């Protein structure tokens, strides 16, 4: 028929798990393959969601695929993760979530009972976030061509306040983290490979629109927000430092980690600053707004442990430095590879 | 840790390929698992996309996962399919596509060169449809846990005219099909299992906003539109007949099928009315609007073979009857199983 598949390039580079890790390899794939092809102002803003106007409305739009393994874990399952994750990406744009879509990619042989549990969790998570799931799709692939269930959620939000984006981050800004770090990643790891840590660690998966909305309603000028998912706080700070052309200095002693998470990280040789969270975010505000920001966040359960963890600086654009517990200072780099595959 | 996976239900029903076929089993899964959990007005409209208002704008929102196998086929690849498919779901709501998202689910080991070809096709398809890809995501799963590449696209469109939906279909409406049927399904099958048909069949994948826009601009009151993807014309008509509470009588001799598609269907025992298309749609208009509808569609290349194929009736709600070439009459039922797995 005169039709052939495209020939692989001379150097047949292949996709590795590290391309999905949210670190340097993911960034390289985005910068070399996706961004040059799809270039446009909304995408180039390098934010969790795209912001644009349509029909007189200021909208935010975001999408994420969820491939977490196992499907069920302490504190949640792939369903509430998929809803909360997309709600949170909208919240990080300062957008009130108004509609979600859910596309299910099911492997032949999946128990329908498992699907029902996941769908019920999605319903509950959507209700908790005050958003409807208005569109969906279901595809099935042969046994062995998938892994139980993948879910892709997309979301539309309404932007009712000013711009919240990396380019608004300024030297002098306070860096605030909304709570303790690392619980989601450790909860997932605890289910894998027969690991059993001393003391239960449940995922922190939670919707984050309520605290963001409280900050906006309080009149705080949020410069930038980012949820601390794949790659953790370290990756979020690095991405924002590069996008904003600033540096950051972080105080490790100000960052909270639950004792069980800390113990698990030490056992596994993981740095909690790189471990994924699903209900935590970083906020950048002018120093003047710091007290009211902390006060507002600490009034809400999900962000009751909010803390100032560092400041934005001018020198060495793109560099994030952390002052460690023992007094030294190190550069907090992007991971080049994959720390925890399929964490979300 | 006191945590266990949910127990499978007493009768451990499992997902089968038929649940993804777009026929009766897909419908049952939607009706028993998804719709009861996610119920809301937009979802309950049972349309290709959800329509709702936000911030004063009338929006349409849709999502689809693409799992087509093979990734590359005559006439296109998974990339342009994913863009055109979502553009078309918006067009079927009468919505001008304004923004797309793309979530990539890659299998470890995929050639990055293949990804680049797919991404370039997506860029070209988006340009042809006048829409930007503004948000994206990349996840990677281990070799053997995926199948090369799955893509989920979601889309936002602006609804600038009146409602286009199944519930507006009325007895007396003309049923118009925009062109010849079955090319996409046969193009995919020609690549599988070493089949080689006499004469090339290329997929009909194409964006459909231009013909829909032309009809709206011409002032034609479109009652309902539906693109003829998974499950083909037969499934689209059945879904709409049920949703609208009407019946339909279709004249098989009015339906065009290319000779090579016809020959392939005969060889494989397939009914072209059930074969997937990716650039064809059915339109329902009042009888008075029929001449102008056909005239407008036939002026555009993608719909130059538009034809009246039947009428909407009042008796026997939900039943679609086809008058065959040899004069007999048969009920055109929903397929209960899966005719062509992973066709899109």
Can you tell me the number of structural domains of chain A?
Answer: 2
Q: Compute the CA-based radius of gyration of chain A.
A: 20 Å
The most extensive interface between chains reads:
A-B, 99 and 99 residues
Walk across the major sheet of chain A and give the strand order. 9-11-8-12-10-13-14
Low-confidence stretches of chain A: 1-11
CATH T-level topology of the largest domain in chain A: Phosphoribosyl-aminoimidazole Synthetase, Chain A, domain 2
- Report the end-to-end length of chain A measured between terminal Cα atoms: 42 Å
How large is the count of helical segments of chain A?
A: 9
CATH architecture of the largest domain in chain A: Alpha-Beta Complex
In percent, how helical is the residue content of chain A? 25-40%
Residue fraction in strands of chain A: 15-25%
- Please summarize the sheet with the most strands of chain A: 7 strands, mixed
Number of strands of chain A: 14
Q: CATH-wise, what's the superfamily of the largest domain in chain A? A: PurM-like C-terminal domain
Specify the oligomeric state.
Answer: homodimer
List SSEs of chain A in N-to-C order: HHEEEEHEHEEEHHEHEHEHEEE
The pLDDT mean of chain A sits at: 91
Give the CATH class of the largest domain in chain A. Alpha Beta
Which structural class do the helices and strands of chain A define? alpha+beta
Query: What is the overall shape of chain A?
Result: globular
